Amino acid sequence: MGAFEWPWEYSFPPFFTVQVQPNTKEQQLNTWKELVLNYQRHERQALLNIAEDTPLFFNKELSRKLSPEGRLWVLEELEKTGHAAPVDKRKQQWEVYWHTLAEWANLLHDWAVANGMTNSVCTIYELVAGDTSVGEEFHGLDQGVFKKILKTLEARGRCELIAFDDNEGVKFF
Known about the structure:
The chain has 173 residues and is of the alpha+beta class. It has helices spanning 22-43, 68-80, 101-114, 124-129, 143-155; strands at 47-49, 58-59, 64-65, 84-86, 93-96, 121-123, 159-164, 167-172.
């Protein structure tokens, strides 16, 4: 995995100030949403704390950062499209989905069918961190997010979540 490629806007100081002109503000929002999804995907991180001055929101070279209100604005807009969900009531910690949960569910189920995983029980750990999923986009994904993906599949009747001993598993249909 190479270095993350920042969009040109990231080096443009006004990008870090929420714009007031409606068309400019809409373009800025779209760029921020794409940046957040691409960055989280590149870093393979589903969790994002918007209170932290991560490189995503703070350009050290410019000494510019997006305000807390701006960060919340971007994540709340991602929430509207199913690409983010707050973890806490204060909306500081977020789950970011570079694929919506429905898209993740389709990807996971297609993988399970293609790899002959239907009608057999797999542990969640085996799916997220095991050898069979190395190289897959969901490999290493946060287990809390992964469980939400499985619950989406379960609601569709495509899998069943199973608890046994100290493990959690899934049976794909």
